[in-house]
Amino acid sequence: MTVYLHDSQGTWIAFRTEPNGRFLFNPDGTWIGWFPWGDDEVVSQDGVYLGTVVGDRLLVRDAPPYRGTPSYPGAPDYPGHASYPGAAPFLSLPVGYTDVPGSALWPAQRWGSSIAS
């Protein structure tokens, strides 16, 4: 069962292929992160903190705990495109959290892609 994650505005920004899936993908199916500790903390492919799953939201802690840099897990299989889940309701950001920046969700844009953010 696909698990959809949204930002505070209710926009679908990421998914896991199953509730305890190890890898995190953006809506295009691009691998953007993984769950090295088996909890709600997500790191990028480089092992840098990416965000925290809070309910059905992917948010960034203002001061995430340092847990070291996990080793590279190996690339996952391509999950394909997940079907559009629709928008979630607006959620006021919890104290100490912000939305994940678009550059972390759409890594191709970090390297000069011409796609507008």
Note down, in words, how this protein is organized.
This protein has one domain (3-111). A hairpin with a 5-residue loop joins strand 1 (3-6) and strand 2 (12-16). Residues 110-117 have low confidence and may be disordered. Helix content is 3%, strand content 28%. The longest helix is centred in the C-terminal third of the chain and has 4 residues, at 102-105. The protein is mostly beta strands and 117 residues long. It contains one helix and eight strands, in the order E-E-E-E-E-E-E-E-H. The strands form three sheets. A four-stranded antiparallel sheet has the order 5-6-7-8, with no helix packed on it. Strands 1-2 form a two-stranded antiparallel sheet. It has a two-stranded antiparallel ribbon with strand order 3-4.
